[in-house]
Every structure is written in structure tokens, then in C-alpha cells.
Amino acid sequence: MKILFWVPYPSEGASNRYRVEQYLPYLKKETIRYSLRPFWSRQAYKILYLKGCYFRKAIFFICGTLSRILDLLVIFRYDIVFIHREAYPIGWAFFDSVLSLIGKPIIFDFDDAIFLPASSQSNYFIKRFKKPEKVDDAIKKSKYVIAGNSYLADFALRFNRSVTIIPTPIDTDKYYPVVKGPSEKIIIGWIGSFTTLYFLDPMREVFIFLSKKFPDVRFKVVGGNFSINGLSCVISKPWSPDQELDDLSTFDIGIMPMPDNDWTKGKCGFKAILYMSMGIPCVCSPVGMNNEIIRDGVNGFLADNQEEWVSKLSFLIGDFKLRRKIGEEARRTVEEKYSLKVNAPKYLKVIKNVYG
Fold first, then answer.
1. Which among 9, 51, 191, 277 is least surrounded, fewest beta carbons within 10 Å?
2. Alpha-carbon distances of 338 from 163, 255, 271, 329, 345, rounded to whole Å
3. Could you give the CA distance from residue 138 to residue 140 in angstroms, rounded to a whole number?
4. 3-class secondary structure, 228
């Protein structure tokens, strides 16, 4: 068996890194051959979400288009085409239609509500060229669909009955708890990308209040430039694959604030899973899949407003034993439900069913 993986980003893109690339060693063990073909190159990804750079982005877009066309010319080499999120960033589902026309089996995988209109602020002009309706068509033309949560699966089931839910898992051999003792200097951390950095805006008053109540608390933001006027206890730095584990190991508490809307309901709660895998107690907004992952007060906390954020973060800041207890239960939850070891067999079963 040989599979062609069409993914949007290089390894720097968290979505296909966790939903495609970390499964590849399992494919190798099954002697399944594959080709991984991102639309955007690493050089393109470096500038993709920067403002401007339109000429360079256009050149990289042409290169990505040519690579997809070249793949079609040798598509006979592959038994299955696995499409993560989309085959092509704009227009209708042209490449999906060509694959369907020639009878090539498609597995379609998505982990966001990409059927809704959305575009980054730095590339807002591209919104007019995007066709979120193409997701319907891509799902119809697929032999099998993998959805990241039940909200996405319900949408997919409108167009295709062969749908399975596989959450975005974590490699528990790579991400594991770091033993810590009691400390007065508590770090409340957030890790993500600048596309979701604005989720932290409603937390500004919470940070200010907690910094007055607990002078030794520090707030660490990894993945974007975040600051609060007059507050020196906020540290922000860019995300780096080489430093991700080191940054996470400094967190005593993880946070995942989110607005409650149709887009965030499609989120797969991976930030919470990431914290929990390392035994970091977390406080999250009760939105979408977070309600499935988090059992409030058992393996984490849910906070729906500023008062609850202050209250539940204060519990964790002031009680080391509570942080350790919640962290241990969080790790157990990930091992049982959201680990790569648990979900890889489900992933392989889909592939083998489509091939068979």
C-alpha cells in the first residue's frame, strides 16, 4: 500500500504535525509507504501569516499549485489519497473532484470548523477567494472521513455515512510530567499561535487582579507577543519546536481561554490535552470539546467568566497538593483516551478499511 498525504503546511504547522506526521512511524511498522506533500513550503510558512509580502506569497502559491498538479500526473503510483483539511487553499474542491473522477479513494480528515468562513487578519483579502462550501463537496467525494470531535462528525454525517471520530492525540512517551516541588514562584502558562493569541484579551483583567493578589505569580505566553501595560510579570516569547518541551515544563498551571462560537466549537481541545499530558493542571473555557475532556475539579477546571477564572486559578496557585492531584488525574485521562498509543490503531483501521 502507498498513500499520498496532502497537507496544508510543513511540520511547523501544528495541525498536520499532530494529525498526520506523528502517525507516520506507525505506518512504517505496517510497511505502508507514503509521500507527505505540504502545499506551503517551510519558506512560505515563515511569511504566510505576516502582513504584506504579497509578491513572495504569490510565488509560493504558484509553487504549491504546481506541486499539486505534478502529484496528479503521477497519482497512479498511490492507492489512497489522504487529505488533511484541504487539498487546495482557495476555490472549489477541484483536486478532490479530479481524484473522484478517476476513482482514487480519498480519506478526508479535519480538526476545525473549516466549513465556516474564516481567514487570518494578515491575509484578510484572500477571504473573497475562499469557498468554505467546498468542504461539503470534499466530504461527499471521500470514501472515509475522520473528524476531530463530535461537533465536526455531526457536520460530516450530513454528506457521508462513513465517519469516525479520532481526537488529536499526544505522544505520551515524548510529553510526560516533570517532577516539581512546592514553590512560591508560580508560572501560569499559555502556548499557541498568534492566530489565536487574541483569545487572551479577556484575561487581561484576570492577570492584573492575580498579580496583585499573588505578587510572585508570573504569566508566560509562548507563541506570540502579548503584554499588559504596567505589568512586568508577563513574559512572552515565540514558539519553537526545539524549546516547546522546555517551555511547557516551566508551567505550573496551563490556561485555555476561548470565546464560545461556532468556530471554537470545532476546536479539538488539543491545548488542554497538551497540558494534561505533562501533568500540568489546567483551567479552560467550557467550550466545545473542553466539556468532554475536562471533568471540573477532577482532572482540570472549567471557567466561564472572570470571577470563575480568578477563583479557580487562585485555588491552584495557593495549593500545591491540589495542583499535583489534578495533574496526576489529567495525565491518567490522556493516557486512557487521548494518547497516540490509544488512537493510532483507530487511524490504521480506517486506512486498512479504505484500502481493503
1. 51
2. 18, 18, 12, 13, 12
3. 5
4. strand
- Dihedral pair phi/psi, residue 270, rounded to 5°: -65, -35
Strand order, beta sheet including 253-256:
234-237, 218-222, 187-191, 253-256, 282-284, 301-302
Q: What are phi and psi of 135, to 5 degrees?
A: -60, -40
Q: Using CA atoms, how far apart are residues 269 and 233, in angstroms rounded to an integer?
A: 27
Contact 281, 253 (CB under 8 A): yes
Q: How far apart are CA 114 and CA 287, in angstroms?
A: 17
Residue in the block written with cell 488529536: 168
**Angle, in degrees to the nearest 10, between helices 320-333 and 270-277:** 110
pTM above 0.85, yes or no: yes
Residues 314-356 pLDDT 10s: 999 999 999 999 999 999 999 999 999 999 999 999 999 999 8
Residues comprising the chain, all counted: 356
For the chain, what is the mean pLDDT? 94
Strands 163-165 and 144-147: parallel
Of 316, 275, 280, which Cα lies nearest the Cα of 297? 316
Domains detected in the chain = 2-169+340-355 (3.40.50.2000), 187-338 (3.40.50.2000)
249-299 pLDDT, tens digit per residue, is 999 999 999 999 999 999 999 999 999 999 999 999 999 999 999 999 999
